Amino acid sequence: MVVVYRCDSDGINCEYFQTWTFTNICIQIKEKNQIWSPFYGAFDPPLVCPISNKVTYQIKNGTFDVGASLLLYPLATDYQWKVNQKFYSDDTFVGSVMIEFYFFGYRKRIKSILKL
Questions:
Q1: How far apart are CA 85 and CA 116, in angstroms?
Q2: Among 20, 73, 102, 105, which residue is least crowded by beta carbons within 10 Å?
Q3: From CA 5, how far away is CA 88, in angstroms rounded?
Q4: Which superkingdom is the protein from (predicted)?
């Protein structure tokens, strides 16, 4: 289960945004080319089912496709986000992860190779 909260630009005032309920997290962990695939692939040790509550997992270089997120919700860049992912093995709660993020952009100055 994923619970998403949308916060103001300072990340202070948050409101419930939506919940995604996954019927079988074990299938989603294995899926490739999905918006969540890079995130689940960043766990160390790798997430495998049944998920164990006796293992400490770390997320290393976790990413997700910003383009896909903006297609689903173009105003995403106007907010900070808090996401709580709860992991279940069958019907047993084994852990959760809370992620806070925001979108930002930057411009890189490119040195011109043209001589005028």
A1: 55
A2: 105
A3: 20
A4: Eukaryota
d(Cα 24, Cα 29) in Å, to the nearest integer? 9
End-to-end CA distance of the chain: 58
Written as six digits, the tokens of 83 are 């996401």
Main-chain dihedrals φ then ψ at residue 13, nearest 5 degrees: -90, 115
Q: Give the amino acid at 6.
A: R
Provide the CB-side half-sphere exposure for 33 (13 A, CA). Answer: 0
113: tokens are: 């190779």
- Whole-model pTM: value is 0.71
As given in the structure block, the two tokens for residue 18 are: 């939506």
3 phi, psi to nearest 5 deg: -110, 125
